[in-house]
Amino acid sequence: MRMHVRRSLALLILLSLTVVGAPARAQDAETLRRELAALRQQLKALGERLEQLERRDAPVASPSAGPAPAAQAPSAPSPVATAPTVAAPPAAGAPAMDAPSLADVARPRQPFALAQPGRVLLFDIGVSGDFVADFTSSTRERRQDGTFAGRENRIFPREVELGFFGRVDPYASALVRISAGEQADDGSGSRELNVRLDEANVTLLTLPFGTTARLGLMRPRFGTLNVVHQDDLPQVDRPNVLTRFFGEEELDGERGVEAFWVLPASMYHELSLGIFDGDNDVAFGRGSLRDPLVTGRWRMFFEFEERGGLQLDLSAASGVTSDDHRNTVVGLGLKYKWAGLGSGFPVFTLAAEGLAGFRNVDAGSDRSVERWGAYAYVQYDVDRHWALGLRGDRTELPVERGSEWALSPYVQFKPSEFLRFRVQYKHTEGRGAVERSADEVFLQGSFILGAHPTERF
Fold this sequence. Notes:
14% helix
């Protein structure tokens, strides 16, 4: 750039000398003065531009070398700073904050320490909201046996979540989620919000043999949908087989440790093993490490290039119930997804999961009950905004005699990746201990503020 400016400057000087040296009789005196004045203005403007370019390319002075020049441009951010910066205007007369160096970012520090002005935050913050309306008959409302028991014919906040997540240091990351939702009516008519600590765990990233481990309060890696939060579910509600075997929120809020390992193979294989207190009141309610809940999962992924991808997972969980009976649940899930070439749409998704439960019913004996259930759904994403889907599920009751099946078509509209609306119809037929015929219509609206990591497949 400077060479181009110097060449232009030399050309203009040569032109000015040529004009001055021309015979006076060929030029009018007034015309010559105007041309010389225009040349002076151009030379002045080019000189100022050259000075600006030289000041921009000059090295930044160190703190010991005195104050920086007044026209110094702000320094570029460090390439290792991947977290969002805190935008705050510097106070009048305050020295400019330097970008953090590699040593500053790599040095261990407290994850909750907020950054100073001009520094980077060490974690992301995200808020998500999930609101649901359940329309059904007055009989279902009176009996409180709808999909969202005790919240029939209401609009309610199912889950509003505040999450903090990020790197603690180069060796670990951490996650904290606080959620609030409306409790089911217990018959008293009160509609209270339940605020709780949903997740709080630290992940160790650099263990031997490529192993990663989590410690704290978490959702165990079991099955296909257990790690998915309410606002990220493929339908408004969880399938009946999952709610019958584990409860409305499945295995959530377990306290323990979990390790997982990606096998060094050509295809993706992930093994996970977890040991937890067992705080699920429906399936594993002992809540003691003397009889812990043990979970395991083997997940595989197969890529078929332009023909899509397939995920398979084999899961198992075994623990003791609150009435001191051994309960073991085994699950097999699959998920196939195909996306159109070019724009990536349309997207076709086919998923299914089956569970088999083996539960002792008499203390001190080998007599047990065997129950099973499964669900499957298909979804067609027309484009980035519209999707159609259909889910069917059938399940037996884990302990009592009875079974039920349900069919649920739905429509989804997403104005953007941060806002989603759904309309879902659900027809349920139950027999035995769950004798009923229910028709329900769900409306769902969910939003995301800030960062919100989701499942990639």
